[in-house]
Each structure stands twice: as structure tokens, then as C-alpha cells.
Write a structure and sequence with these properties.
- By secondary structure, this protein is α+β, with helices and mostly antiparallel strands.
- It has a single domain, classed as Ybab, Chain: A, CATH 3.30.1310.10.
- Helix content is 56%, strand content 18%.
- It is built from two helices and three strands.
- Helix 1 runs antiparallel to helix 2.
- The longest helix has 32 residues.
- The protein is rod-shaped.
- The two termini are 30 Å apart.
């Protein structure tokens, strides 16, 4: 009887995790650099889905600076995506008395 209950709980948690992962794929977080002149957008799974560069930043003499800004924005978007994912998955595992595994 207890094994049945445990199996049902595991199946329920698996379904919840699948829903959270689907939701995370639709979520968007941003990373900004250069006062918002460069923006990277990631989904909740950590994939970069868009990059926007303000035309004011584009100067052939400043390509290295632009590259640094893009890198900073992308890294910030990825960090925000990981934080979002950890928070969402942690909500599932904390309800089971488990530490955050993600």
C-alpha cells in the first residue's frame, strides 16, 4: 500500500516537473549591458532567444566594446534564466522535504 502511494507521488512530481519545464521554455528573462543599449533575452531553459543592439552603439571603431557589451548582456540573461529555473524547480522539491537539486 505504501509503495503504491509512493509511486503515485513520484508520478505526480514527474508530471509537475514536466509542466514546469514547459512553462520555463515560454518564460523570458533579460540581461542588459551598457545602460540597456545591449539586451539579450533568454528563455527559462537558458537558451538565448534574442539579442538587441541600440543602433547608437554601433561604431566600427568600437567593435571590441560592443562585443564586450553583448557578452555581458548574454551572461546576465543566462544567470537570470538559471535563477528562474532554480526557483521554479526548487518549489517542487521543497514541498517534498528535499533540498533544491537544481
Amino acid at each position: 500500500m505504501k509503495m503504491d502511494k509512493l509511486l503515485k507521488q513520484a508520478q505526480k512530481m514527474q508530471a509537475q516537473m514536466a509542466r514546469v519545464q514547459e512553462d520555463l521554455a515560454r518564460e523570458r528573462v533579460e540581461g542588459l549591458a551598457g545602460g540597456g543599449m545591449v539586451k539579450a533575452v533568454a528563455d527559462g531553459k537558458g537558451d538565448i532567444v534574442a539579442v538587441h543592439v541600440d543602433p547608437e552603439v554601433v561604431d566600427p571603431k568600437e567593435v571590441e566594446m560592443l562585443e564586450d557589451l553583448i557578452l555581458a548582456a548574454v551572461n546576465e540573461a543566462i544567470r537570470a534564466s538559471r535563477e528562474l529555473s532554480n526557483d521554479r524547480m526548487g518549489q517542487l522539491t521543497s514541498g517534498l522535504g528535499m533540498p533544491n537539486l537544481f
